[in-house]
Batch of 3 targets.
Target 1
Amino acid sequence: MLKYTLRRILGMIPMLFLISVVVFTLALAMPGDPFSGEIDPNNTDPEYIEEMREKLGLNDPLHIQYARWISNFVQGDFGESTRYKMEVSDLIAERLPNTVLLGATSLVITYILAFAMGMYAGRKPYTLGDHFIGGFNYFGLAIPSYIAGVFAIYIFSFQLGWIPFQGSVDITVEKGTLEYWLSRLHHVITPAIVLGLLNIASYTQFLRNDIIENSRKDFVRTARAKGTPEGKIYNRHILRNSIIPLITFLGFDIVNLVNGAIITEAIFTYPGIGQLFLNSVMNQDYPVLMTLTMMFSFLVLVGNLIADILYGVVDPRIRLD
Amino acid sequence: MEHYLHSKVPLLEIKNLETAFKIDGNYYNAVDQVSFTVERGKILGVVGESGCGKSVMSLSIMKLLPKGAGRIRGGEVKFEGKNIEHYSEKEMNKIRGKDISMIFQEPMTSLNPVFTIGYQIEEVLHNHFKITKEDARKQSIKLLRSVGISRAEQIVNEYPHQLSGGMRQRVMIAMAIACQPKLLIADEPTTALDVTVQAQILELLKDVQSVNDMAIILITHDLGVVAEICDEVMVMYAGEIVERSDVRSLFKAPKHPYTRLLMDSIPKMDVEEEKLGSIKGIVPSLKDMPRTGCKFANRCPKAMPECTELKPVLAEAEKGHEVSCLLYESSKTGEGTNVT
């Protein structure tokens, strides 16, 4: 397994190189350039502009510009945000904990709800309970998160006043106290549910269908013939098999954990990576934009790798070597 | 319960069992009024074509019919004198694997792919006995050895996909005999295996049967298998028993035309034949089953006009040899000629 993992990590290098070329090219293809953020906007003297372009290296041939960017990038120098005037790495480090908290909370809620509902619906298919869960899920699938988010804010925040409508923490509480963490949880719970809605629905229905399918397998009949109680058949024999295909989802979840929910964070004005990404696009903040895009791509690769390794752990028929 | 052990109560007694499947809202009997008994320590063979209700019958005894599809509509299933046919799932679970166990046709898919062989054998022990993990492990290694698996210590930690079909069927047998059941139902245990392995598995079944003194219901469509290990044999057609007798008398003098045709379709070493005998047509589907008369009439070479109207009764045509065919006087009246 170690050998397999190392080989996969090595295989990521050419992939990442290609991604970096694409990211760089796409950034160039965007209208405007990072230049506008770097100069004094009141000085429109063409000579001054030309001088600054030369100084910032924007007149160099493309491959030199790329080489300069990538060599800084691999050394951990992601550049400086043109908008926030601070190191991109510091900027991301500031936002990342918020997004990880949001993603993790959303994931925990998703897993708990999806497993509870999926296992129930799979065990008692075509009953009233199953139809109810199915209805709820298709509702969740059909409503886009920006609609659900707006409604959640309107109902729970403005009408009922249960939850704050923006931010990641109450600014009046002291950092590090229990109150501080409760406040953070209070802020994160609604965006987490809104973010998880779609996942809950797809997880639940997938698990349900897989449980129904597995319950018809021969090995279930064997377990019954051994006198194994019904509960154990479902919770062990069937569930253990039905978890295997869910691992594909888990690979994507790992990516979601960090790339944040661009739309959800924007609606709840939750200061996370998703919001930062959206702002960087709007403000043509190239260093942030390119770093985040590279980071997301890297995480997709890592997520897939983790999923593939987990397959080997969960399914004895898959051997990694 | 002890007093049954020495009494004359048969191990398994089935009376007028009817199992039906729902097709388009109506129930159709896949097992129709089947009655028979299984004596302790005997091997009963059940023979018939695909779709004749053999498997459904065996699943009905264990109450393992697929949920929602099949239903026992009537009749009695008595195990050691007790009527188990209306037992709850919980009550059945005490019997399944312990008193009655079962092995299936498909060893490739009958084991759970994500659990070790050891786990799957030990599970049946844990289901029925209070036993420590260590003891269960020792027991499962012993069981694997008893079914002729030599690397038992390693095999307990291996997964089903690492074993061949024959090995898996041995594992299934080890699992089935783990609690020393009184009855083993083997539903076509050798069908999916190649010929040499088939012989080994049959040999093994015979061995475990004599060691544990259990009864076996062996379901098969292979008359050769029946001749080899069974004491008694029952021929089924379209959910009904058409002939029943001890093995010798059946092979010496088959009575029902269907049984004869089955025998003709076995290749023989000593007779030179141009073409192997076969039975025309197939078992009609449940929906298309003839409602009156003999269900085999439309395929029967000896069919008489009354066959499509009068329903034959399974009755003794000869001492210990029952048949259900209008060629025999006994089947018209339902009274055996030699009934004592």
Target 2
Amino acid sequence: MPHVMISRKKCTGCHMCELACSAYHEGAYRPSVARLFSECNPTTAEIKGHTCLQTGCAKCQEACPNDAIVTKRITVTPKGFFENKEKVGDSVEGYVLVVDEEKCTNCGECYEVCPTGVIHEHPDREVAFKCDLCDGEPQCIAFCQNKYVYAVDLKVDKKDKELAKA
Amino acid sequence: MDFYQGKVLRIDLSAGTSAVEPLNMEWAERYIGGKGLLLRYMWEEIPPGLDPWSEDNPVFLVTGPFAGTNVSTSSRLIVGCKSPVTGVLNDSYVGGSFAPELKFAGYDLVIIKGRAPEPTVVTIKDDVVSFLPAQPKYWGMKTSVIEQALRDDFDENAKVLSIGPAGEKKLPWACVSTDQYHKAGRGGHGALLGDKNLKAVAVRGTGAVTVGDAKAFLADLYRIHEEYVLTDDNYWVHEEGTPILVDLVNGAGAFPTRNWSDGEFEDAGKINSESFQKIRLKKRACYQCAIACRNFHGVEQGGEMVQGEGPEYETIALCGSNCGIGDIAALMKFNELCDEWGMDTISSGSVLGLAMDLTEKGIRDFGVRFGDVESYLGAPELMATRTGIGEELALGSKHLAEKYGVPELAMEVKNLELPGYDPRGTFGMSLSYSTSDRGGCHMRSYPVGDEIITGDEPADTMEGKAAYNINGQHYSSVKYTGIWCDFWAIDFNQMSQLMKHVWKRDVAESEMEQMGERVWNLGRLFNLREGLTAADDYLPELLLTKPHKRGPSAGRIIGADTFAEKTQEYYSLRGWDTSGVPTEEKLAELGVDVRL
């Protein structure tokens, strides 16, 4: 299963990923509605990345009483280079969890169970919003652009293979 | 409107009220944002000849059109005012994350006037502005402490701009801090905020910055970063950062050492980039910057671990070699103390170096000596609290040296202490300092870039240096409207590619260049209006007439006559009269919309 992770050690706290994420999804820069975030303490420089683990976690999907968190097939082809590229290749096939806004009632069950805190109520629409890997070209990875940093990475875990078989 | 929020937030501390008004878009078009917009608003908002300590003297917080987007390096905020130190304009820049957050809260500009009856903290949550008493809790807090306190008390995602205890005591070089290690350092904004009884401004914004077609903008920015920002030529900033300058400047005999009595420091190798890389723990970035120039270091000092970002080059020079300090751990600690007490390190190191010089020369015993770590580390608290020797040091270099009858020992221009480049090792910096619009400063034009770093210009002649500084001043002026940071060597063409998104039309490179000249002339008019004369475009005489006796710059001297001649050449090339006043023809040509 393809998903995005932020390296605690490598992240510089520039927040470019959040900015690009919000611009892509919201049509304007609004990082308070970004689908991922890097929690940075300015004084200690400690970083904690918050990203969606997609089908590898799926707690939101399990909690949803309305089947509004849908498993969708996806091909992820990040723009530019990223740390894990040599391992996973240019393109990764798999699944992503997306919100079906027709079915979502904004009941909030998923907000309670998300272990990384990356599914929330949208401030303008009464539905949940979450990471959908930008339809296959994650902007967070693209804009983690410094070759000495590459902190936002595409990871793949084996759970997809099980899903693929099923 | 795209890129701008179109709103100005006015804060009246005397009344404890705030108001929102539209941004003057005519000015925004004429001067872009950042420095240009600041100067235009200063012209309008500051009554001519106003006493800088008057409660009517505003402090401005100014963003640029690209704050809050993916444009690398553009998160910078200007803290601006008519400086209580120099009496002229002061635009002090700070990175971190405050400016973008202010944009997300919905404002391009904040104008803070008045004086709160009691110490106050202002919080801004989108359109809700609140005034909180700073006592008993916040007043007196050091900078890292108040930042955390306001994240705990107000909003966990708040970005905090604050003064330390030095600002509360109105120390002339008290600075304004954000994200702990980021300082709007120069010109005494911290003192002015202290005088206004404003301890901190905390902002949280949840709104948006629009840019038109966001996906198209993202695609263009990705390209711009690949082609111009993250290039092999520019990566030194990330790999080393400013400490790279230590070996270069020391090797040119331009490294201020022991109150500028030498241009070469024997212990430079202990505080150079290589030494800092050995104690580097992490790379850090300002908000929205892919370059990530900041170095997070850690070292044991006096039995405790000192951790933090920096010091940057200027701090290494003024608080290191200029104080005879080659002990990297002591330097780290000194930097941390200045950060926490809220003081500019350039002036701190300069004033302390002068005090050491006065002590060593037997003129006045301040109990501090070059290279003595114990007294050195005790000094920041004394300066910040204005106790002990700090009471006198708070005079600043100029007035302290005058008090003891040795004005020649003060290294300042317009009462602002000089940064870390001795003009005897890099001649062009003489005019850079003397003609800088905010006093002794290296960020308006930077002959060091070619006289020392690339070696493309000879460092030991004044030929061509008037024109060089003029070009540099235009470049920095337009750069600071963007606001782009010095660590992206963005050229006029690249600026025009970005401005095309803002103005929704093709932008010529020449427009960018002219914008720089327009802004510089506007600043000159402001300074003249406030009483500046050509006599204020001086350089400490010692730097012009007394050569170093040893080292790479030994024997080199500019000479007072040559300097005076080059100052006139500078005015003339600028289209200014012999008194340094812009001519009507020049102002009309540039489209400057105010007159003396």
Target 3
Amino acid sequence: MSQKVLMKGNEALAEAALRCGCLYFFGYPITPQSEVSEYMAKRLPQAGGLCLQAESEVAAINMVLGAAAAGVRAMTSSSSPGISLMSEGISYLVGSDLPCLICNIQRGGPGLGGIQPTQQDYLQATKAPGHGDMHLYVVAPASVQEMAGLVARAFDVADTYRTPALLLADGALGQMMEPVDFDAALSVRRDLPEKSWATTGHGGKRKKNIVNSLYLSPEALERSVLSRQERYREIERTEVLCEETDTADAEIILVAYGISARICRSALEAARAMGIRAGLLRPITLWPYPRAALLRAAGHAKHFLVVELNIGQMVDDVRVATQCHRPVSFFGRCGGMLPTPEDVLAEIVKIHESIREEGA
Amino acid sequence: MTSRIILAGFGGQGILFAGKQLAKTAMHKGRHVSWLPSYGPEMRGGAANCSVIISDKEIGSPIISQPDILVALSLPSFSKFEPAVSEGGLLFANSSLIPEKSKRGDIKAHYIPATELAAKNGLAGGANVIMLGYLLYVTRLFDYDELIGNILSSIPASKSALIEGNKKALLLGYEYRG
């Protein structure tokens, strides 16, 4: 049996990144993710890497761009307002086709907002993390174990498709401790393509590599955008992840990711104990979105309930995925307020009663 | 079997440390555990608390609204969480700093002057571990050796001077009989 260690989500993601060969971290402290840079500042120099506290998030993301262009695994982490500052650099990374990992341990917004956990950056992460026709590969862990495992997957997908990846968690997952088994979390290793495009210096022995996001010719820019879209289609075909709990016979399906899914799991148990056929579909990748699984579920479920720590940012994705075959309700809190499983259960019971009334 | 435990007090009383010892000991026994701290401006003198869940099955929400066990080291934390303790639940109160008694008839309350015991025995800052010792005696959540082993393994080599103090504190609480 491999060794389990009790760690904070923030520490586990940092340790996982290190074990995945990420030796370059650039960041700027912000609650509730500061343990990531704290951990990296301690460990990376020992491992022969570099942890640099930049003067701002804008600088940090551009340092990631530079490191990624040189072909190394590099990352940054921040929390909501810091990620907004990085938006320009993120778009440049996409335009330059550079793999890297960005972690957003979300807090309340808008503006400086608050420091308690939310999921208020869902739309930013999945729809518009930067300007241009672009996406990030977005993973949403729901446990400390997954914080580690999804770091590995995000780096591998980033390297395979030359795209930045985003790990979207929240203050609760970052701050809480749970057992982590790193051997299990990092057991999948892929064959990754050579980074023959990296600007490593070559002493005149090969044609020079240029990493750039500026295309003044519209024809060339369109070609570049369209070729990236082909990679996005491939990611949509092969890299979608979701987890289903008790959905097979469910009338009511909860859709939730991250810490909300944990709250839903407790609500689900209570609903089942009351004889209500409820299930949980948990998107693990938020982009690409598990549309096929949702459409399948819409074949037999009567009602969907989206639960998030925001005002309903994922609802439209569920409507589109289920092609509006079934009603989609929403329940959530925001600003750092956390619903209890009992709150979610009350929503499930309400929906259950409305289904019974319609049937009667 | 699931135990939902809230430990609460002032920042600096070692609340988070004490909660972590419970979670770590349970993890080493193969149980599912989660430890969720309060975080933010309440550190350093303000209120601090953590939620520890120990379960035989996978843990859903790590947030506790009704603790089965409350360990309260300060009066504000007693006032805040005592009403939330679940029916049939247990309360452990540091009577040195909590002059009040619980008026609830549906929970079992235990009182220990942990801060005074710590001060009398030259264990400044040891009230948290004294509380753990008393909790262990009442609940038998773990074997004594399991818990002390985990506490001692949390002490870094650079702070080995703390080993004797923690041993003494846990035993003081464990042997306390009201």
